[in-house]
Amino acid sequence: MRAAMFLRKRGELEAFTREAFALYWEEGGAPEGLEADEDAPVSTVARRIGVDPEEVLSGAASPEVKQDLKAATSEAVERGVFGAPAFFVGGEMFWGNDRLHFVEAALQSE
Questions:
Q1: Is the whole-model pTM more than 0.85?
Q2: Exposed end of the chain (fewer CB within 10 Å): N or C?
């Protein structure tokens, strides 16, 4: 999440998110267990989108990015988000990658 916040500021959130979702939910690349190496998937996604993995990991560890994530998390909780991925179209929330067709339909009707 911090890597996403870092890349958002650079205008690379969409590319990062697409590749991260593919890695985690389509390719089974999510870390397993409490002692999983969480840097490896972030580095993989960074390489896929042509970004230096070390720069992403370093940027994600910055105090500014950590604070940005806390603020975004607070906003999400206030809006009723309870899991990921969650998408909003207007005031309506859609939860789960199996609901993306509903998100698309809602966007087309906006």
A1: no
A2: C
Q: Can you give the residue ranges of every domain in the chain?
A: 2-74, 80-110
In Å, how far are 11, 24, 67, 81 from 75, measured between CA atoms? 21, 24, 12, 9
Contact yes or no for 14/87 (Cβ under 8 A) = no
pLDDT digits (tens, 9 = 90+) for 61-87: 999 999 999 999 999 999 999 988 899
Helix axes 13-21, 39-48, angle to 10 degrees: 120
61 neighbors 2 (Cβ within 8 angstroms): yes
**What distance in Å separates the CA atoms of residue 110 and residue 22, rounded to the nearest whole number?**
26
